[in-house]
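Co-fold these.
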Amino acid sequence: MISQGNQAMTTPAAVVSAESFLRLEQVSKVYPTKKGPFTVLTDITLDIQAGEFICVIGHSGCGKTTLLNMVSGFVRPTTGEVRLKGQPIKEPGPDRMVVFQNYALLPWLTAAENVYLAVDAVWPKKSRPQKMAIVREHLAMVGLAEAANRYPAQLSGGMKQRVAIARALAIRPEILILDEPFGALDAITKEELQEELLSIWQKHRCTVLMITHDIDEALFLADRLVMMTNGPAAKIGEIMTIPFPRPRDRERILEDPTYYQLRNDALDFLYRRYHLDEEAE
Amino acid sequence: MAVASVRRNGNANPLLKFLRQQGADFYLPIIGVIGFLVVWQILSSIKILSLPGPIQVFADERSRYLIFHPFYYNSPLDQGLARQTLISLTRVAQGYGLAAIVGITLGILVGTSKALNKSLDPIFQFLRMVAPLAWVPISLAALRQNEPAAIFVIFITSIWPILINTAVGVREIPQDYKNVSRVLRLSKKTFFLKILLPSALPYIFTGLRIAIGLAWLAIIAAEIVMSGVAGIGFFIWDAYQQNYVTEIIVAVVYIGAIGLILDRLVGFLQSKIAPANR
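Predicted complex below.
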């Protein structure tokens, strides 16, 4: 079912009954260029269960973002199909909310207004006080109750990312898609936000698909780590199952010898077997 | 060190301190203006310029009357310069207002639709190159009356920067914002009000600011050609016909001052409504 890999693979693929929650089936993406067709992704088959936390890792240019864009619906696969609960994904929609790489907050709206825009779009029939309550609840959840009336320019990078996450969660998506959400943040803010994301996910239990460049981040957050081979024509190289029990505690994980074994496997995959030759780029 | 700083602070009279801080901003423009007037006076005194110098403008009975009586009224074509200016400004307000409404609307349509843009852009690029004065005869021939013709000349001169900048502003909406709109499936109305308009607003104001200058230039040109309508442009033409050069100079000062005020006014609105970086 899943392109099986190495020793760390223990995914119970048999659990997939009739159809998994989210299924990418034989998906490829080819872009026509002047020099002929350019294959970004090929032969991607992946099953994701409801409530799973999936991280995708790979070198730049391996089509991670294209992969996520096919789930969010911004990009249609050239061949194959992406299905959510059996229905093919044809266009973007709020059930698959995206936390964009550079936050994508509207600079002329305050933090609260940015979240309200999403809440109002998804539940137009709710009353204004109801919608405002949802906005306040989610801003408070990411620790930004105080900053509700500030404009994005008055917020730090970490705070902007919190607003973007609050906006995404406020509309109760079935899948939360995050494209390198913490890439631009400093190490401390990054760890804080990882922990917040995890505790929020623990409560909401939506399915999460997240791109990352950071192996430690993926090991801390994900149930499974999808490792991509290098582009062009990237594939899923391996899928690593991360067995740490939840709720996860960073210190406990760091003491676990399994952590280092998994970390070495991932490093080995990324830097030895699929080392990206920068000269060749 | 300590002694020096104490002494400096001790001498600091608040007014002097203010003047010292504002010094360059405050004195240099005044020095520039005085220098300009002096050079002008010298050039006209030694007859290199056959124009009267500033002292003559001030001394001449007719222009002196104009300076000190901006609101006198004898007849529609014989009234104070402030009144004449106001009449011209009313025309500008009508033509410019119309240009803003039509220009922003068309600009949004052209910016949103690629097909519309491709089909209309050549016409826009062509028409915007036609000078205001060239529109006067066409406008008179088409509308047959001075007043609407003058307003049309302002309209057709000032619409292009508004239209073109609005269209660019709409086309330049960042992809991120469009993606937000797509994933949230925003209604057309919400997209227009919450994303398109605020995103294009800085561009629209750039167009409006260029256009106000052009509109003011155009009205003077239009009035000079359309005889018999009150307004500061016709006033100049009339004074020229009767060889009252000092009067012309006073009117030109009015024109420059009003143009500057109009530009700053739109600039002020821009800073209030569409601040450069928020």
